Amino acid sequence: MPVDASVDLSSVLAGLDRLSGVSESLARSMAVAAGQVVRDEAKARAPVDTGKLRDALYLAYSDRRSRESTVVYSVTWNSKKAPHGHLLEFGHWQVVGGKRGKGGVEVGFTPARPFLRPAYEAVAPRMAQIMVERGRERLQELLRGAAGDVESD
Questions:
Q1: Cα-only R_g, the chain
Q2: Global pTM?
Q3: Cα separation of 80 and 133, whole Å?
Q4: Residues with Cβ within 8 Å of residue 94, at least 6 apart in sequence
């Protein structure tokens, strides 16, 4: 006796269609979680002579560097609020009496007081774990939301 194994998969397929946006949202949530930890570590390491640099640090999505398969966030500082951040991060020549090469006299190199690179290096070993933990949380949220959408049809 034959067994009828036909199943209506239309609701399942509709649910899968709704999940198409999940991967980008999931990837962005994971990247933000890791980026926030790097940003916070950089803030803790930033020189606080005035606090302007520390307060100017932020995390930003990079539309220009992100691709369909890659989500990129950058930790950087607002150069209008802290225009000399690069001098602290990388070091610089100290020039007195004009510009370098135009009457100014170089009095020496001011060594770097890096804060961003060491912050990344300190957090890097934990970044995969941070992203996985956030991914697990966010995936459950997204799946609950998608399941709710399917049930409401």
A1: 25
A2: 0.76
A3: 35
A4: 106, 107, 108, 109, 110
- Tens of pLDDT along the chain (153 residues) come to 455 554 566 666 666 666 666 788 889 999 999 999 999 999 999 988 878 999 999 999 999 999 888 899 999 999 999 999 999 999 988 877 767 667 777 788 889 999 999 999 999 999 999 999 999 999 888 888 755 554 443
How many other CB atoms sit within 10 Å of the CB of residue 72?
A: 14
CA angle in degrees (0–180, nearest 5) for 130-118-66 = 55
Buried b (16+ CB within 10 A) or exposed e, 2-36: eeeeeeeeeeeeebeebeeebeeebbebbbbbbbe
The C-alpha atoms of residue 24 and residue 30 are separated, in whole angstroms, by 10
For tokens 């959408």, name the residue.
149
- Secondary structure, 3-state, 78-132: CCCCCCCHHHHHHCEEEEECCECCEECEEEEEECCCCCHHHHHHHHHHHHHHHHH
